[in-house]
Automatic annotation (TrEMBL):
GO terms for cellular component: extracellular region. It is found in: Secreted. It comes from the Bacteria. Gene3D superfamilies: Subtilisin inhibitor-like. Residues 1-30 form the signal peptide. It comes from Prauserella rugosa. This is Subtilisin inhibitor-like. InterPro entries: Prot_inh_SSI_I16_CS, Subtilisin_inhibitor, Subtilisin_inhibitor-like_sf.
Length: 131
């Protein structure tokens, strides 16, 4: 009985270790993204929206990461140079402070600006601050 239990324990342990190695192997083999930005929108009422944008390949928690990466690609990774998209926004003054911090292809990015409202933050950043 003891021999069967010991064999079973070794088999289960070996299987668990193999599974762990396979799981980690997949993660270790993946290349890190070329660019990573932490984006935030702070409202005057104290609420903060936060998302992570990864580019090269596109990913992270940004809801439209591929579009945001394409917009930043066109702006050479400079949030201040993002193009404006045409969209209707209400003329309501509810300022939001937008921030982007991280790196774009190895270069540091530190950007902060204020938009008149969340809709304009989305439109004037070509979707980068549209979350």
């Amino acid at each position: 009985m003891r021999t069967f239990s010991a064999r079973l324990s070794r088999t289960v342990t070996a299987a668990a270790c193999s599974l762990a190695v396979l799981s980690l192997g997949g993660q270790a083999a993946a290349d890190p993204p070329e660019s990573a930005l932490s984006l935030s929108l702070s409202k005057t009422d104290g609420t903060i929206a936060f998302t992570q944008l990864l580019c090269g390949p596109a990913g992270g928690t940004h809801p439209t990461s591929a579009q945001a990466c394409a917009a930043l690609e066109e702006a050479d990774g400079k949030p201040a140079a993002l193009e404006t998209t045409a969209q209707a926004c209400p003329m309501i003054h509810e300022p939001v402070r937008a921030s982007a911090h991280g790196h774009w292809r190895g270069k540091p990015v530190h950007f902060t600006t204020t938009y008149n409202n969340s809709c304009l933050a989305d439109a004037e950043s070509n979707g980068v601050f549209g979350f």
